Amino acid sequence: MPFNHTGVSHTVFRLLGIPGLEDQHMWISIPFCISYVIALLGNSLLIFIILTTHSLHEPMYLFLCMLAGADVVLSTSTVPQALAIFWFHAGEISLDCCITQLFFIHSTFISESGILLVMAFDRYVAICYPLRYTAILTCGLIGKIGVIVFLRSYGMIFPIIFLLKRLTFCQNNIIPHTFCEHIGLAKYACNDIQVNIWYGFSVLMSTVVLDVVLIFVSYVLILHAVFHMSSQHARHKALHTCGSHICVIILFYGPGIFTTLVQRFGHHIPLHIHILLANVCILAPPMLNPIIYGIKTKQIQEQVVHVLFAKQK
After folding, report:
1. What letters, b where the CB count within 10 A reaches 16 and e where it falls short, cover 96-117?
2. What is the largest CA-CA distance in the chain?
3. What is the pLDDT of residue 284?
4. Tens of pLDDT, residues 109-153
5. What is the pTM assigned to this prediction?
6. How far is the C-alpha of 150 from the C-alpha of 56, rounded, in Å?
7. How many whole angstroms separate alpha carbon 123 and alpha carbon 158?
8. Secondary structure letter of residue 172 according to DSSP
9. 87 phi and psi, to 5 degrees?
């Protein structure tokens, strides 16, 4: 296929928001704004409670604190840009800003996946080796795990910056989306993007897909240990401690898997449905994660009540 080399490489792009629903942007912005406010307040409160409450300085809660921080970054990387498009038609974005945005979106998504894997490992150790739990998951190890998770995500996405910067964007500079993403931007290049496609695929397989497999293996081992417990009360307590984590896992990976299937097989589905589904993947986990842990974790419930209502008593 011949490339249309015009000698001009676009340095400014225009995000359209949700194409086909431009007249509904103001109404669509309402759930976006509400979701973002809930995500920002909920996760910030969660981080504050965990960091300031000594009794919550346990591995499970420290990993939850990391997840809440990643949720804040993920939602802040996307929603303000979307709201600017919906409210002010401010869809123009420079190439450098577009690459910066997709870097934080993709790296934070991989970070969250890594944190969920670590939380599965935490539950495995807590249930299968309860007497050695604190000896295995020391504060030093937790810190090292956190550093490794974030270094892995940023290290895997960092080469994408150079893979995109080498391209010449001489085709259309109109992006029918609310945010920038790797292949969505690369496909507007006149160069061959096979390297981008294969590198993006390898990153996905070696991070998110691998994490899903290891989480599945962790829960197989956990269930094997739980159903070999002699006490029914112990089985119920062990499963209850995993409940919140399982809900968050389904919430994080579920929409992503569904969106991937829709993109692969749903060619007859309108473009705006694809864009809305992609935004659900970004919006839903940060908004619902603190709610899930707040509802299902008694210690967090008590601290939330103490922080919000202590001054009124």
Report:
1. eebbebbbbbbbbbbbbbbbbb
2. 73
3. 94
4. 999 999 999 999 999 999 999 889 999 999 999 999 999 999 999
5. 0.93
6. 22
7. 31
8. -
9. -90, -40
